[in-house]
Design goal:
single chain, 98 residues, alpha+beta, 3-stranded antiparallel beta sheet, 4 helices, 3 strands, globular, binds zinc ion
């Protein structure tokens, strides 16, 4: 594809990968804009779903610990704010503080 600007994401950890995006965007003059969350599997839009809508799909321990669930409108992947999300938010906050 011609005419598309891209950032090569590198690194072995989430922190390194997020940092490579920030560095690549700055070097390429690409503005990063936080938008609505997208599915990490297919890029589809995520929508907030009620817990009772997805209770059969969620492991019981997760259902007890979380109230908010998001479902991809394209592939049906289910998400919640688990430990991976908390780690990514922590990395994002540190990048905001730069
Ligand atoms: Zn999806």
């Amino acid at each position: 594809m011609k005419g598309f600007r891209a950032i090569l994401v590198t690194g072995d950890s989430d922190r390194e990968r997020v940092r490579s995006i920030a560095v690549g965007a700055e070097a390429g003059g690409i503005e990063l804009v936080r938008g609505d969350p997208l599915c990490s599997l297919c890029g589809g839009d995520l929508r907030l779903v009620r817990k009772d809508e997805v209770s059969a799909e969620v492991p019981p321990a997760v259902g007890r610990r979380h109230r908010l669930f998001f479902k991809c409108g394209s592939c049906g992947q289910l998400y919640w704010h688990g430990s991976h999300w908390k780690k990514l938010m922590s990395v994002a906050r540190r990048l905001d503080d730069r």
